[in-house]
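Subject: GTP cyclohydrolase-2

B.,
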Amino acid sequence: MGQTDTPADPLVAGLRAVHRAVAELRRGTPVLLRDESHGVVMAAAETVGAGGLAEIAALARVAPLLLLAPSRAAAIAPLIPPALRPAGEEPAAVALRLPPALLEPAALRSYADPTFESLLPPGQRPDRAPAPPLAPAALALAKLARLLPAVVMAPLREGLGSPDLLAVAAANVLAYPVDAATSLRRVAEAAVPLEDAADARIIAFRAADGGIEHLAIVIGRPEELAASGGAPLVRLHSECFTGDLLGSLRCDCGPQLRRAIARIAQEEGGGVLLYLAQEGRGIGLVNKLRAYRLQDAGLDTLDANRALGWGADERNFLVAATMLEQLGIGRVRVMTNNPDKLAGLAACGVVVEGRVAHEIAPNGVNDGYLATKAARFGHLLAPQDGN
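Prediction pasted inline below.
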C-alpha cells in the first residue's frame, strides 16, 4: 500500500518514512497512515487544498472527519456540539463530522488556526463523532511536521490496491520522538572562538533520518572533567530565533544564552551549552508567532499554546540526554530555573548533581512572560523579578 522504502535497518526505515510523510503534509499532500488492522488517508487541515481534499474523497470509504487536539476543541467550544464522553475524561482527539460546506480549505483552517481570519458559512455546524483508532498517531504526525494538530482523515475504501501516496506506519509515528533522539550521532565539529568563550567548539548532531541538527557548544574540556568523575556545568537552551538572533524583548532567551556561555567559560574545566532545535518549547517558530498573536489578544504563554492545540511544553529531553551520552558526560550540574529540565534529564538516565540558578531581570516588556513562567510553569524565579 503506497510508496515504500525499506533499508536494512528497520529503525532507519521507520524514521525515513515518518520524515517523508512530514514533508508531504507540509506540502498539503495526503498520506496513508496504517496499522495492522486499519488504513486511513489523511492531510493536515492547515495545508490541504482543494486538490488534496479531492484525493481524499477518491480514496475514502466515507466522508472524512476533522480531528482536533482536545485543547483546540476546548478553545472553540461554542462552534462545536457538546462532547460525546463522560465529564472529566480526556479524549485522545476530538472528531467532527463536517457538512459539505465546511469540507473546504478555508473552513478547515478556520477550525484549526485561531489566528486565521475567515468567516465560516452561516448556519453550518459539525456533528461530533467517535475518535477513530488512528487519531492519536494522525495528530502526532501533524505535530512532528510542526503543523497545527488538526487533520482531515478518512478510512480507505476496500480493493484500492496500492494508492500512489506515501504510506507510514502509525507505530513508527508514535515511536519517532524516541527513535530520532536515540539515533543522534556527531556529524561535524569545529573550533569556534566566541566573544565570551575563546576556547569553544561547536559539535553538530543529526538523527538517522537526516533531519534537523542539534548543536553542542563545548567550552573548555568538560569531557576530561567528566572522565575524572566530575559533573560539568550544562545548560539546555532551546533555540529562539526572535530572542537569540534578533534580540526580542518578549522573552529572556537572548540574555540567557549569552550569560550562560560567559558563565560556563568561567568554570574550572568548562562545560556545555546544548543548543536544541526545539523552538517555542517544541512547537516551532511559525506556531510561536501564532502564539504571540494570541498573547497580544490577552492569553498568556500557556493558554496560547493550548488554544493552538499544543501542550504547554512539547520538548523532548531525551535529545539532550543522548547528546550528553555521546559527549561522554553522565553527571551534570544544570544551569536552569526550570525543575522540569532536571526531572527530564534524570528520567533519561543523566545523574543531576545540582542546579545553578539562571535568572534574568525583567525588561518592562517581558514582565508578564516571566510571571507566567513562575506561576504556571513552576520556574524557580525570585519575587523581585516580577514573579
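DSSP finds 15 helices and 14 strands in the chain.

T.
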